[in-house]
């Protein structure tokens, strides 16, 4: 059989079977397609459903983001307006913000989830605030972000070139390091002075002891006379006395006087002992002073060739050493001669002889009660010769007899003393130190984090100036003292104290310089990016926080008027503002004692000094700026040929110049940070006109005076401007109070302290702003929102009877931040 | 009747069956393909709507900040002010479609111009024309013109609604138009 026939036969058999059992070929295509397409269709539907699920998940994430974004949109408008910071709004007690972050989010999510139809069923949703502004890192980040444009714009406006400033200050810093050597020398002089002061004290004590000794010697002699009389009387009574009673009575008479005589002898012995001890101390002090003199000489030698004027490269001609040699050294020589070893030893020999004789006499007198009548005559002990008692006083007088003549102050000392006194008196006038309107005393309970202690250098400098003031006052008192010894000692001691406090002052300036140097060095070591960040960060505080010069009319970086803060804090404009206003004010209307809830306007000052006493902060910043000006002026004036370099006069000029600068700054004027020309150095001969002009530009000057002088000034200025074309600048960086504050913040305030203080300011202001509507707490000002949504993915064709609640669930955790 | 006769009588049944069953299967596949298309279109449009409402909601904040900094900057120079405004107002993209200097929400709270432009920006990354082409390709009836935008601002909450008809890719007998309406509510960054 052929192959073809076999196939046909097989087909017939299949047909027969099909027709017999399954009705032929009908429906076979359907079955075939069903078998073939079902798997493909199933796979396609699974892919479709999974794609739909994926799409729903993605859309759900977008809706969650949208709801999170809406939640963030309910930001704290006060924080944004005032500080440029973004954080979630506080939960209010009235108005629209009555819900917390969780409720807000859930509401927004429910609004939008319908866009997915039946695609999802939300089972649970929640939102939590995270990363509050109470975290300094978060606050720092926001401050930088906000200040990036606003603070930089302000700095550009002010023409601050930080590179030039740093270069200059670092250069000045290097030069000023040499002054530390002067400080060492001055300190050696101060030690010498202090030791000499101790000697003078000892001499005074010695003289008093000498006087006491003389008195004791006199009383001793009188006691002997009494004793001698009583002995004679006793001898007469004993004549013919037989009974024991009469003998005993007669002996009692002499015993009593002998006891007094012995007591006086003991007093003399004790006085001699004290004198010997004091003279021994004096000898030791004199030895110590010789060592001090050697140290001073070494320092003088070092100064003589190491100190150079940075401008001229000539040696500094501080005449401190001459002052010392002319006065103290001469006195020390004289005292040293008076207490020479020979004289003291000779005196000690006399003392020793008298002490031995007195000791022997006291022993004999102790036993006089046991003597019999026959011994009395022979036991009348004659007094020990102590004629040298008067020598002690003479010796003390000799030691300081020429001191009164030598002690007159160096030429400038009187003026230094009187000026220091008047400067300190002025500083002590609180009306100058701070604006009376800004005197809040903030209770620490309202703060978020607590402040940091003031800088040590500031405290030291303040203490040294106060010491100078005290010494000046002592000197004034000494001049009017009538008692010669007291006058001389007090006068010399006040001079010594003045020298010592001047040394302390310069040492404190040096300490402040070191602080400033460290700040500068730290800043200079930073990368340019970090420097910029630092500058932006601190500029934010300097320009966005009110200070005593800006709280009335100034605005923050966000355009927020500072006067609103003053009003928010309950400040009143009819209260006295400055020293001139105060002159006509009867009483400040601002209460002094209550515990306030926020500062009134000296917030910039708080950033720098960190105490809760607003007036104290102003005082501290006044001093800090004074210190900064001292730091800069020390160098500027040293380079000025019109300023004398005699030490007291020089200090006087620096103090006065800095004081005038600070006075003008705190009253709203501007100062060159670095003064290059004598024209702008007020204490120079050429600078007085400038002082007058700057003074009338301050807010303290009366308007009429200002108008009168300003018109004249404008004309003069125009002329000067034309004349000055092409000439070197008079100074670098014309800076206001705020810019001085900025520099101090940068160089003297650690970033952590700065940020903590900033947190306090935000907390205080915002809490006060919301006090009637919401409870504000910095720890609730969230910059991020974490959302958690648990939802179920529903199938495309949701038939509850068949599909139940769906098989797939998803949890979405999302983060949304400003 | 022998087998051959029976077979001859059934000639064409396979063809007939095929002609009936096969289109059903093909329609089924096309339906699934159409559903894919609907999902894709809806997904893209919803995404664009959500993103555009989020973007528009931020306009008031950006506008206020740029005005503020503009004020400060103007004190320095008008040129710098313009630079800052440009820098602030249009932060991330190179097109003006993604930001607006208009404060429509204050004076014309039902004006759909801004939301429509922003929708086009987020949908097609640019102009209305690009969006129209892309929407038409996705089967939106009449492209961008077929989408009806409605905006309402109430109590600082913006409600943006779009209504459109979606054509199936194989729209036989004009029965495949699916009407869709989507609404997104977004809180404006308004003080």
Q: How many DSSP H or I helices of chain B?
A: 6
Straight-line N-to-C gap of chain A: 91 Å
Query: Largest sheet of chain B, described in full?
Result: 3 strands, antiparallel
Q: How large a portion of the residues of chain B is in β-strands, by DSSP E?
A: 15-25%
Low-confidence stretches of chain A: 304-308, 315-325, 406-413, 426-431, 578-592, 700-718
Structural class based on helices, strands and sheet pairing of chain A: mainly alpha
State mean pLDDT of chain B (0 to 100 scale).
Answer: 80
Query: Structural class of the secondary structure composition of chain B?
Result: alpha+beta
State the distance separating the first and last CA atoms of chain B.
93 Å
User: β content of chain A, as a range?
Assistant: 5-15%
The structural domain count of chain B equals 1
Strand order of the largest sheet of chain A: 1-4-5
Which regions of chain B contain 5 or more consecutive residues with pLDDT less than 50?
73-82, 89-94
Question: Strand tally of chain B, please?
Answer: 3
Order of helices and strands of chain B: HHHHHHEEE
Determine the number of helices of chain A (DSSP H or I, runs of at least 4 residues): 28
Instruction: Please count the beta strands of chain A (DSSP E, at least 2 residues each).
Output: 5
Q: Assign an overall shape of chain B.
A: rod-shaped
Most extensive protein-chain contact, per-chain counts: A-B, 51 and 51 residues
Structural domains of chain A: how many = 3
Features:
heterodimer; A: mainly alpha; 3 domains; 3-stranded antiparallel sheet; B: 191 residues; alpha+beta; 6 helices; 57% helix; rod-shaped
Brief summary:
Chain A is mainly alpha-helical and 818 residues long.
Can you give a write-up of this model?
The complex is a heterodimer of chains A (818) and B (191). By secondary structure, chain A is mainly alpha-helical. Chain A has helices at residues 3-21, 28-73, 77-83, 101-112, 136-158, 162-177, 179-238, 244-306, 320-338, 341-366, 373-379, 389-400, 403-406, 413-428, 430-433, 456-479, 484-525, 528-544, 562-568, 579-584, 603-609, 614-638, 647-666, 688-696, 703-724, 737-748, 751-769, 800-803; strands at residues 120-132, 671-675, 731-735, 782-793, 808-817. The radius of gyration of chain A is 47 Å and the shape is elongated. Residues 304-308, 315-325, 406-413, 426-431, 578-592 and 700-718 of chain A have low confidence and may be disordered. Chain B has 6 helices and 3 strands. In chain B, helix 2 packs antiparallel against helix 3, helix 2 (13-74) packs across helix 5 (113-124) and helix 5 (113-124) packs across helix 6. Chain B is of the alpha+beta class and 191 residues long. Chain B has a 3-stranded antiparallel β-sheet with strand order 1-2-3, covered by helices on one side. Chains A and B meet through helix 1, helix 2, helix 3, helix 4 and helix 5 of A and helix 1, helix 2, helix 3 and strand 3 of B.
């Amino acid at each position: 059989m052929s192959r073809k026939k076999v196939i046909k036969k097989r087909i017939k058999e299949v047909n027969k079977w099909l027709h017999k059992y399954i009705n032929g070929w009908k429906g076979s295509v359907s079955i075939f397609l069903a078998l073939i397409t079902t798997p493909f269709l199933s796979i396609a539907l699974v892919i479709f459903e999974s794609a739909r699920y994926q799409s729903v998940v993605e859309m759900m994430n977008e809706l969650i983001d949208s709801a999170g974004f809406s939640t963030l949109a309910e930001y704290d408008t006060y924080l944004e307006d005032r500080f440029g910071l973004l954080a979630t709004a506080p939960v209010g007690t009235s108005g629209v913000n009555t819900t917390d972050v969780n409720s807000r989010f859930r509401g927004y999510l429910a609004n939008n989830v319908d866009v997915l139809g039946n695609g999802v069923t939300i089972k649970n949703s929640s939102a939590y605030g995270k990363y509050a502004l109470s975290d300094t890192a978060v606050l720092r980040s926001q401050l930088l972000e906000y200040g990036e444009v606003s603070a930089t714009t302000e700095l550009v406006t002010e023409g601050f070139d930080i590179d030039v400033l740093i270069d200059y200050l670092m250069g000045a810093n290097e030069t000023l390091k040499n002054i530390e050597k002067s400080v060492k020398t001055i300190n050696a002089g101060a030690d010498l002075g202090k030791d000499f002061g101790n000697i003078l004290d000892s001499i005074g004590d010695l003289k008093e002891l000498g006087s006491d000794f003389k008195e004791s010697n006199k009383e001793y002699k009188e006691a002997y006379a009494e004793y001698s009389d009583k002995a004679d009387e006793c001898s007469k009574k004993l004549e013919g006395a037989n009974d024991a009673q009469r003998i005993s009575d007669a002996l009692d008479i002499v015993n009593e006087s002998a006891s007094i005589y012995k007591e006086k002898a003991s007093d003399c012995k004790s006085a001699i002992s004290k004198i010997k001890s004091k003279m021994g101390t004096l000898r030791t002090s004199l030895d110590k002073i010789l060592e001090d003199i050697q140290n001073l000489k070494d320092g003088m030698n070092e100064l003589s060739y190491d100190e150079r004027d940075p401008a001229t490269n000539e040696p500094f001609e501080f005449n401190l050493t001459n002052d010392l040699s002319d006065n103290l050294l001469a006195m020390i020589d004289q005292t040293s001669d008076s207490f020479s070893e020979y004289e003291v030893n000779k005196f000690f020999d006399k003392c020793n002889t008298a002490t031995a004789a007195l000791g022997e006499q006291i022993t004999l007198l102790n036993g006089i009660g046991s003597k019999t009548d026959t011994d009395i005559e022979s036991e009348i002990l004659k007094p020990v010769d102590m004629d040298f008692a008067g020598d002690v006083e003479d010796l003390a007088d000799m030691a300081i007899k020429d001191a009164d003549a030598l002690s007159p102050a160096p030429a400038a000392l009187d003026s230094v003393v009187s000026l220091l006194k008047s400067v300190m008196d002025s500083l002590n006038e609180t009306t100058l130190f701070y604006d009376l309107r800004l005197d809040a005393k903030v209770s620490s309970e309202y703060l978020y984090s607590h402040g940091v202690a003031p800088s040590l250098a500031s405290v030291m400098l303040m203490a040294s100036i106060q010491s100078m003031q005290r010494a000046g006052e002592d000197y004034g008192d000494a001049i009017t003292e009538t008692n010669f010894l007291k006058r001389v000692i007090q006068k010399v001691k006040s001079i010594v104290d003045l020298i010592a406090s001047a040394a302390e002052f310069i040492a404190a300036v040096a300490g402040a310089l070191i602080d400033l140097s460290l700040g500068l060095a730290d800043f200079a070591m930073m990368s340019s990016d970090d420097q910029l960040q630092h500058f932006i960060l601190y500029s934010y505080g300097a320009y966005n926080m009110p200070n005593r010069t800006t709280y009335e009319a100034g605005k923050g970086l966000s355009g927020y008027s500072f006067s609103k803060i003053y009003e928010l804090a309950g400040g009143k404009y009819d209260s006295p503002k400055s020293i001139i206003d105060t002159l006509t004010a009867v009483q400040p209307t601002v209460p002094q004692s209550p515990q306030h809830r926020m500062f009134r306007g000296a917030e910039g000052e708080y950033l720098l000094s960190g105490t809760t006493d607003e007036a104290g902060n102003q005082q501290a910043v006044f001093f800090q700026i004074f210190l900064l000006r001292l730091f800069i002026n020390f160098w500027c004036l040293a380079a000025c040929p019109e300023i004398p370099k005699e030490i007291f006069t020089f200090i006087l000029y620096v103090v006065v110049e800095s004081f005038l600068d600070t006075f003008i700054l705190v009253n709203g004027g501007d100062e060159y940070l670095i003064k290059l020309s004598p024209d702008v150095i007020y204490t120079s001969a050429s600078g007085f006109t400038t002082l007058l002009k700057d003074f009338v530009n301050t807010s303290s000057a009366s308007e009429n005076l200002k108008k009168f002088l300003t018109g004249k000034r404008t004309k003069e200025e125009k002329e000067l401007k034309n004349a000055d074309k092409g000439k070197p600048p008079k100074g670098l960086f014309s800076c206001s109070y705020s810019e001085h504050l900025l520099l101090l913040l940068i160089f003297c305030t650690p970033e952590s302290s700065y940020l903590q203080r900033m947190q306090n300011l935000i907390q205080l202001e915002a809490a006060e702003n919301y006090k009637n509507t919401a409870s504000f707490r910095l720890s609730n000002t969230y910059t991020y929102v974490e959302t958690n949504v648990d939802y179920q993915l529903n199938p495309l064709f949701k038939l509850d009877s068949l599909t139940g609640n769906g098989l797939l669930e998803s949890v979405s955790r999302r983060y949304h931040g400003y | 009747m022998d087998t051959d006769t029976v077979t001859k009588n059934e000639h064409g049944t396979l063809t007939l069956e095929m002609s009936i069953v096969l289109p059903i299967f093909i329609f089924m596949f096309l339906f699934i393909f159409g559903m894919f298309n609907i999902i894709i279109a809806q997904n893209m449009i919803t995404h664009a709507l959500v993103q555009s409402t989020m973007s528009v909601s931020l306009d008031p904040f950006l506008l206020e900040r740029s005005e503020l900094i503009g004020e400060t900057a103007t004190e320095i120079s008008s040129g710098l002010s313009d630079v800052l405004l440009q820098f602030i107002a249009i932060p991330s993209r190179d097109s003006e479609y993604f930001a607006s200097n208009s404060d429509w929400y204050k004076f014309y709270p039902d004006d759909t111009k801004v939301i429509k432009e922003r929708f086009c920006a987020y949908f097609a990354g640019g102009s209305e024309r690009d969006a129209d082409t892309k929407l038409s390709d996705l089967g939106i009836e009449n492209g961008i013109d077929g989408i009806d935008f409605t905006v309402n601002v109430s109590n600082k909450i913006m409600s943006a609604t779009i209504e459109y008809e979606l054509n199936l890719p194989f729209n036989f007998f004009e029965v495949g138009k699916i009407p869709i309406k989507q609404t997104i509510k977004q809180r404006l960054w308004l003080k």
